[in-house]
Amino acid sequence: MTSAETDEDTLIAGLAKALAHPARLQILRLLRATPGCIGGDIVDAVGLAQSTVSEHLRILKAAGVIRGQIDGPRICYGLNPDAMIALSGFLATLTAPANTTCCIPQPKAPS
Amino acid sequence: MTSAETDEDTLIAGLAKALAHPARLQILRLLRATPGCIGGDIVDAVGLAQSTVSEHLRILKAAGVIRGQIDGPRICYGLNPDAMIALSGFLATLTAPANTTCCIPQPKAPS
DNA sequence: CAGGCTTATCGTTAAACGACGATAGACGAT
DNA sequence: ATCGTCTATCGTCGTTTAACGATAAGCCTG
C-alpha cells in the first residue's frame, strides 16, 4: 500500500506528462477526429517543425497513448483508448467528493 | 473551433502538468484520504525536503487542484474536485472508441 | 515579550523539455 | 536503379523543472 502506490503514481504521472503539452493534446484531438490515417498532416496541423512533431509523436507512443502502424511509406497513427484507464481512474477518485470535513480540530498525537 | 481549442488545450495541458509528478499525485492521494487537515504531515509522507514539498503544493494550488485555508499557524489543504472536469472531459473524449477505421486507402489528392 | 512550530521564499545546481535545422533511413513509383 | 516522399534520429540551444539548504515570515502558547 506504500510501495505499490509509488509505481502507480509513476505510471499515472507518466500518462499525465504525455498530456501536459498543448501540441500533444492537439495531436490527440486530431487523431480522434480523423477518419482515415494521417501522417505528415499532423505536422501541417500543429504548425511546428517536422522533427518537433515527430518527437511529440514519439512521446505519445512511448506513453502508450497512441500506436503507429506502418502503411507503406507513411505511418498510420491511432489512439489507444485503453492507455488512459489508470489516469481516468485516478481522476474519478479525486472527483469523488469524499469529505468536505477539513480542519477538524484534531491535533497531532501526543508523544 | 480552431483558436478556441487552443485555449482549451492550454488549460488541459496545465492541469495534466500539475499531475505529471509522482510526488504531487501522492499529495493528492494523501489529501483525499486524510480525514482532517494536514500540514507538515505531507512533508513526512512524501519524504522530500520541506521546501520541495512546499513548491509542489504551490504548483497544485496554482493549477487550482487544491486549496489552502489558513488555520492558525498551519494551513489546511483540501482538494478542489471541480478543477479536473476539463481534463476528465478530454479523457472521456479519448476513451470513446470513435472509429477503428484506420489506414483507409485514401491517397492524397493529386495535383 | 520570548520561544517554538509551521509554512513560504530565495538562491543555487543538475537534469529534463521544447524546439529547430540538418541528416539519414525506408518505401513506393517511375 | 533512381527519384521523390515520408519519417525518425542527431546535435544544439535556450528555457523550465526538481531538489536542496538556508532564511524569513506568521501565528499560537507560555
From TrEMBL, chains A, B:
<keyword id="KW-0804">Transcription</keyword>
<dbReference type="InterPro" id="IPR051011">
    <property type="entry name" value="Metal_resp_trans_reg"/>
</dbReference>
<dbReference type="InterPro" id="IPR001845">
    <property type="entry name" value="HTH_ArsR_DNA-bd_dom"/>
</dbReference>
<dbReference type="Pfam" id="PF01022">
    <property type="entry name" value="HTH_5"/>
</dbReference>
<dbReference type="InterPro" id="IPR036388">
    <property type="entry name" value="WH-like_DNA-bd_sf"/>
</dbReference>
<dbReference type="InterPro" id="IPR036390">
    <property type="entry name" value="WH_DNA-bd_sf"/>
</dbReference>
<keyword id="KW-0805">Transcription regulation</keyword>
<dbReference type="InterPro" id="IPR011991">
    <property type="entry name" value="ArsR-like_HTH"/>
</dbReference>
<keyword id="KW-0238">DNA-binding</keyword>
<protein>
    <submittedName>
        <fullName>ArsR family transcriptional regulator</fullName>
    </submittedName>
</protein>
<feature type="domain" description="HTH arsR-type">
    <location>
        <begin position="4"/>
        <end position="99"/>
    </location>
</feature>
